[in-house]
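Re: beginner question about structure tokens

> Can someone show what the tokenized structure looks like for a real chain? I only ever see the sequence side.

Sure, here's an example I had lying around. Input first:
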Amino acid sequence: MQRSSLFLLLGLVAVTGAPAAAQQSDRFRINGYSSFEYEQRTGPAGRGDTRGSFDSDGFDLVFNFAPADRFRVAADIAWEHGAASEDQRGNNAIEYAFAEYAVSDWFRVRAGKMFVHFGIYNEIHTAKPAFLSVKEPSSTVRTDKYGSRVRFYPRHASGIAFTGSGQIAGRALDYVVQISNGDQPVSPVAGGASENNPFDKDDNSQKAISGIVRFSPVDAFRIGVSFYRDRPEEYDALFESLGSQSTLASYGAFVDWQPGNSGVEVEWVQGSLDASSGTGIDRTGLSAMVYQRMGRYTPYLRYEAHDPDTGTPDDEASTSIIGLNTRITQGLFLKTEYDQFKSGVDNRRFRGVNFGEIKVSVSVAF
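And the corresponding structure tokens:
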């Protein structure tokens, strides 16, 4: 299956509710995906797993129910890392659960918990069969994995969204605008802000605003822009509210070009976190990938880079990846790759220790 078909069938299943073998009826559909992984560090030092470990990374069931022609309810329920609550192992999560009403193709309204619609990967980060690599790029999505204290944007949000899609001059365009509670810090102090669930209550009156626009000016070429802006509450050392807010702002752009059996994908994110006192940080993230489809086999190269604070020297980190995605049969993919990590000596996570990591995964879509 070509990568573009995967994005349509799996990566955007939350939007389309595409039919699959598990389809129950025209109004009720069940889809799903899972990923089983293995990782092992190469070399004597670094952050990776020296022993080599299997990981039941995730198992998701995706439900789409349409009680009426213009009304849809969608949910993704996930079990991560072999979840067993009685043993306090793994994690259970509702990745998203929302209701959607379609006024028209160009205007649909959603309410509930949703993915934050930003960039290429956040909307599909749980659907591992939908992309070539074992993991989504940490440089633009999971930036704490590269030493950032705060990500460019949260993975999920609770609120309302306005979305639509159609054609302009015969070319595809879609958009999403979200208004949500945003993210909130977890307090290490008992009775602090950790009790304030961002999917239940906001810790201040400010609301996060985010959005994405994607457009295909020519065949096999897509461009997109994203933004996220929030005013998170500030706390003192005891995690008592100071009554002031910082400003979190992130902006991104990406291109996805698939000429023939080849492909090029580039995403750039620029962000800032500014405190009310006037201090702040600026940071950047880059992900660039090329790949070549050869029947069931798709080799790929990807480069990731992240600078957690452009004002701090030697805190950057990067990863060079070479991998192979093999489609065993419909809905079953074997991914093998080698990741080489490099960093500056002041990077909070890697501390300047370079290392390699072998990653293998079996991804399933149904």
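Each token stands for a local structural state, so reading them left to right follows the chain. The two ends are 14 Å apart (CA to CA).
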